[in-house]
Structure formats: structure tokens, C-alpha cells
Amino acid sequence: MDELRGRSFGILAVDRTELTAHAERLKPWLEGGDPSARVVLVDIGGYFAPILESLHHDYGDRIIGVVEDTENGIQQYEALYKRLEAPLYPVVSVARSPLKNPEDHLVGVAVVFSVEACLRRHAGIAQGRTACVVGYGKVGRGAAHALRDRCVATCVFETDPVRAIEAQSHGFVVPDTLASAVQDATIVISATGSKAFDRDSLTHLADGAFLASVTSADSEFADSARAVFDGGRHLDGGVTLCTSARGEFYVLNRGNAVNFLDGGALGPFIYLVQSEIIAGVARLSAGLIPKGISELSSDDRQALAGIWRTHFTH
After folding, report:
1. pTM here?
2. pLDDT in tens, 220-267
3. Rounded to the nearest 10 degrees, how much is the dihedral formed by the CA atoms of 141, 144, 149, 152?
4. Whole-number mean pLDDT of the chain?
């Protein structure tokens, strides 16, 4: 972003906490300056989805489209367009791109690394524990396999029947309910992006369990669950001690992505995703993307992968 800023592009970085119903931070960009200038919204988590209708009402075609990076985010745009029964803008999804697979796998591995680091900071180790990964998407899959590689007995809870069968075929036990899945697990990793845990769900956690997320707290946990975290006792190393019906449990990084405690670096593989985001912006700017939700072509992705291999394969 810093390399692009100052060329022919204006770039405004907006924190999700700064996006209100009226998008105040965006007004100077959308109401001032060159009236012919157009804006692309680059979203990581669906944070523009709740205000897209108001943006469309106020600014119309000053906005030319959205690029969304996450599965949780693209689901929000899908739900919005289904409710409206008509798309407002083109939305380019990077969430399900095969170029994102390396990143998602490595995020899962990084999450397990950070969970283990938290355990060690509190006089524990992963080996000998039982674990449950909630959600067997690409990140959850990486986390489940990383736990098993560390000799941690791991089960998976997945509500999607196709993914549940996939987890079974990979040798994981898949319980029928969330309560039965987490009741004996002392490591629980939530990887759904769809508020898998509320206050009632937390009551099923085992005494002494460590609860971690692969994404933001507001994506993975309901308001009632986050209220429990806020009322807990914050310990060293990004750990919060909370109380439930079965005893005490530990929340890592206040329910936000636990791998961020250790930097969350993914090496050059992150550039694959960033390059597709930039390519999506370019396609939108050229007017090549129709209204609705779409993805870049296989040819585009092949070209981006070829460029990446030229620079990063030795």
C-alpha cells in the first residue's frame, strides 16, 4: 500500500472501528476533490457490506466496486445481494481463489504455533492434550493437521456435510454437536468466521481449556461470548482467564486471531493474495467486471502465479 500511495492513486486506510453507518471517514474522498475520480473498496472481512446500501444511495457510481479477501466477508456480500435481489456493485472475490490456499494452510499452521506458545508461557505443552477444531474450511483444515502432526488427539466439528465427510476421510472424528465436540478438548480452535460460539456454547468448554480463533473476535464469536471475554482476568502473554459452568477456561488474544500474537508472518506466499487483490482493483478500474459477485479468471491466476514463481522460487 505504501508503494502505491503517492503515485497516481489516492489510498485511504480505514480501521474497521472507524466505519460507522454513515462512513464518515470516506466522505472527504467521496465528496471532495476531483468529481470524476472513482473509488474501489478493498475489504478484508465484509466491513463495508453493512453500509454498502447507504454508500450506493449517497455516492452512486463514484464507487466502482469492491474487492473482498475473506470467506466471512464474501458471505456477507452474498447475503446482502440475496436480500436486495439485485447487486449494487461488482464484487471481486479473492476468498475462494486457489492462490489463497497456501496462505490459508500456513495461517492454520501459524495458529497452532501460537496456541502452543501460549501454552508454554503458562507451563503447559500441546502434546498429551486433546483438541477440537471448529470448522473444516481451508484454515481449519491446516490447523487440524498441524495439531495432529504435533501428536495432539484432534477431532473436528463441522456443520457442512460435505466438509464433515472430508474431515472423516482425513481420519478425524466428527461429533454431531458442538457441545459433544468440545466437552473433553483442552485446546479449542474456532475457524468458522460465522460466530460459532455464544455465551451458552462457552458453558460446554472443559475446565482448563484454551480457546483460540483464526480470525477477528467479532467474526468468530457472538456479542454474548465477547462480553464474557471482556469480563475475564487478563494475564500475561495475551491470555484471558474466564469462568464458565464447568470451571475456568483461557481465551487467547481476546478472541482475535491468535497467530497475531507472534507476528503472523506468512513469508512471500502472502504476495500471491495481495497480487490478486491488486489485479481485481485493476479489472474494476477498467470496467471489466459486471455487477454481482465474481472472481478473476483462471488465466489471470496462472499469470500471477507465474510471476510469483519467477521472483520467489530458487
Report:
1. 0.78
2. 999 999 999 999 999 988 899 999 888 899 999 999 999 888 876 678
3. -170
4. 90
Q: Cα dist. 283→20, 63, 84, 153, 200 in Å?
A: 28, 14, 25, 46, 45
Q: Are 152 and 127 in contact (CB under 8 A)?
A: yes
Residue 255, SS3 per DSSP = helix
Whole-angstrom distance between the N-terminal and C-terminal Cα of the chain? 26
The DSSP code sequence of 68-80 is E--HHHHHHHHHH
pLDDT score, position 205: 95
**Three cell numbers at 275?**
497480487
Q: Which residues are CB-neighbours of 150 under 8 A, at least 6 positions away?
A: 112, 116, 126, 127
Cell of 15: 480501521
> Measured on CA atoms in the order 128, 129, 132, 137, is the torsion positive or negative?
negative
E-strand stretches of 121-191: 130-134, 153-157, 187-190
Give the three cell numbers for residue 292: 454481482
Sheet-wide strand order for 233-234: 153-157, 130-134, 187-190, 209-213, 247-252, 239-244, 233-234
The β-bridge relationship of strands 39-43 and 63-68 is parallel
